[in-house]
Here is the input.
Amino acid sequence: MICRKDYKDPVVTICKHYFCSDCALQRYKKTARCYACTTDTKGFFKFAKNLLSRITILREKKKKHSELSESDHEDQHHSCSHSPVQCKGEQSDKGDFLNKSVEAGWVPTNKVQLPKSSEPNWAKPEAPEYCDSDEESD
Here is the structure.
């Protein structure tokens, strides 16, 4: 059974997967295959000396990045000079407008005119008189 918690005395397998040493040894008692990819580990585990320090550094970077992102978002929110505008034909109380229009049986019919597809000029034959010819061919 693999605990999936923070690593305690981490080890790395020959297939480069990391586990707690206790979890790796318990797994090895059942089978020599890696829990992650089923490669035969042959019971060979190395202590992952630098893993915990690398994880700590990554967590600090992530925390710092999230704090910066939050402060940037707050700064942008406070410094933004744009304000919402009312669109043409839009009622100020949207909920009331929708309720009245549904009661009246009105259904919006906004149709969009899509461009008609056309074949490019290069798709046309250069000499159309040869295409529909009734002449005998060899």
Q: What stands out?
A: Helices lie at 21-30, 51-79, 94-103. Residues 32 and 42 are 6 Å apart (CA to CA).
